[in-house]
Amino acid sequence: MDIEHAEQRAQAGTMTTVQFRKILSDTSERINGESLVAVSTEDYLADWLKGIVARNSAGTIERYKNTVRLLLESLGDKAKKPVTALTPHDIETFLNQRTKAGMAPQTISIDLKNPHTSFSSRGALQHYP
Fold it and tell me: Quick one: fold of 41-121?
């Protein structure tokens, strides 16, 4: 399917965002040899953790690993989807779970900051809160 046909389907409401991304990715690969496919949130965060080891203390790394583990648990199956599928609602759900678990506001603030550092430093998400 070409982009014009995709646009017509999108305007008619018969095309999902996932389908549209696939067409854009295929078009990009055909034109410049690069795919637009994003890695899973799980893989993205694992790669980020590997990259920060040399720049942080052991205690900081453990805090980051714990936050990532908790976030991935909160996401459930969505953690295996592309990192671009992550929404502000997903992060709010995670923070609300931490609040309900009785975590202190400062801890929750750190829980928000840790993955935010990953996403913002690497430009992964435009809409991370």
Answer: DNA polymerase; domain 1 (1.10.150)
